[in-house]
Design brief:
70 residues, two-stranded antiparallel sheet, alpha+beta, 2 helices
Length: 70
């Protein structure tokens, strides 16, 4: 909470009804995560969204690996 106050971020105590998270890998090492959340619909996402996010995370990881090497 101190960090949130320092950064002037308003915290929300509402938990998402549905979420998906996929890792961003750089050279097979976890470096981050991409998360999408829906606070209202527990059936907001289906498996095809996971596949899409995995593809996006792969591309982000590849870009970051290239940026790190340069």
């Amino acid at each position: 909470n101190n960090l949130a106050q320092k950064l002037q971020i308003e915290l929300n105590s509402i938990s998402p009804q549905c979420w998906i998270g996929v890792p961003i890998l750089i050279k097979n090492n976890p470096s981050g995560v991409i998360v999408v959340q829906n606070f209202y619909d527990e059936n907001a996402y289906e498996y095809s969204y996971v596949t899409l996010l995995e593809m996006i995370a792969y591309e982000v990881g590849a870009y970051l690996a290239g940026a790190d090497a340069g």
